[in-house]
């Protein structure tokens, strides 16, 4: 399997699967990843999008060479994780969901100790530590204990620490979960800079805006399978309309209003209506025109919003439920 430019991908997976053994003799194993195919090219930001339990983290653990695949083939940097796991891990940077920083060390010491873990010379560690502190915007916190850092700062330190060995591939598992919007945007900026420097990024997320901001390509996962793959723009174009009209009605009017809205769409042109518990979504190529038609039909929503289609709409189309389910 070759990349889009004809070069050999950094990562190739064919029929990749992971089944966990049963907890007792009477139980059956749990198939978290059900045989998936994908490839990742050098310098690409590649994402796994899906709800909790979709198989994203299990896939990342296989890519990080800490959990063996139970089916299919996987090649990372041209090597087999089952045979060359140590060599591959030496060229990976890993940012787990939860920070695993050492609370007894200062910010700078966390970077230094991780460099020693990789067996780097002290002069190299010193130079890289100062550079990474600047990259993570933590120079002023270098001598502080971890307790002095905000959640966003801790995530930036975790990413900086993962870069001490100058990895070819950086694995990020839910990198911005729990962060406030400002901290998320700062982190996105740092990751974008890494990509500009040629680092290959692999990330899992259930945030649609994050996937749109960071990923060149992504796969949408659900129940251990890949529902579709492509760039964010390709997926939106393939599975949705240009705009979405979001309407909220009184609870006692919700179902009746949804029935009337079906008469306003043009199914042959890809338009459709999705009825959610709290609102009705009208997928349309012209939201303002559709809203005018709603008004002309003497329907009076409590709120009306016209927005562009997003990856959340793609997921709703592919799996029939929202990413937060």
TrEMBL record:
Alphabetically ordered keywords of this record: Antibiotic resistance, ATP-binding, Nucleotide-binding, Transport
GO biological process: response to antibiotic
Cellular component annotations (GO), alphabetically ordered: plasma membrane
ABC transporter domain boundaries: 11-248
Superkingdom to which the source organism belongs: Bacteria
A Pfam family that the UniProt record links to this protein: ABC_tran
Similarity remark: Belongs to the ABC transporter superfamily.
The name this protein goes by in its record: Lipooligosaccharide transport system ATP-binding protein
Native source species: Streptosporangium subroseum
